[in-house]
Amino acid sequence: MKLLRSLLMMLILSCMNLSCGGNVLTSFGDRTTDDAILVDIKNYRNAGDYTSAISKFSELSAAATALQENQFLMANIYSESCGLDFLSMTEVLASASSSRLFPLVMGEMAGSTATGVSHCIDAETIMYSMDSSFTLSAGEYLFMTFLGLAKIGAILNLNADTDSDGSRDVGFDACDSVDFPDTYAQHVATAFTLLQTGLVGMAASGDSSGADAATIVSAACTALGSLGPSFDFCGETDSTNITGDKLKGVRSLVKEDNDIGIGDDGCSGDITTCNCP
Prior knowledge:
Shape: globular
Strand content: under 5%
Order of helices and strands: HHHHHHHHHHHH
Number of strands: 0
């Protein structure tokens, strides 16, 4: 529960840094300027028309598109199209009776679609690019943390909770590439790294709750090492690098039900007991 409390505290302390609001001003001049296009994008976003908002970004100039604030706006819109709702996610974390993250976020991301997951992937790509190109704010690192949770939840909901009742489907096997296709397992890995990167970034910004949570998440990576160093996928930002034992490590982290995973019909315990050999 310490991790959940830490994430909640981070949101309370940093939420005001996020670009959650819309621009209530309208432009009466040239509708092709970057400023006018951004107004349209924000209006589409506020109306929940994410398809139009995303499409409108292509009309921005290259210079405007490259701005950190606009990259962050684009990532936010992609994440909302994926299904990330900050307030709802916060309520889930605050009221959780379990400390296992994966079941919690799987339930929160009910009704996820393949298109939605692809938009979480798009948002993740933007945030990794921003992290390498800019100095991120505490709010941007916080967003990375919640995006990582949302992406993991969306993937697990799509594959392991097909009726969206908040519980793992009977018979789901995280070790099976039919039940849990490699591509989705690979993207759970990069989302986990995104979550960890966000937490570390919060800590570097002076948020001690971020440091506490980062330590707890890192413990999951340490647990992977108990299967052997080759199973540890933590730190990987490129999904194509998640192969062999690293891919088995992702599946094992999903399979166990002691620390973070969603469990398995035929096994209950930590990753040393429940894994994908």
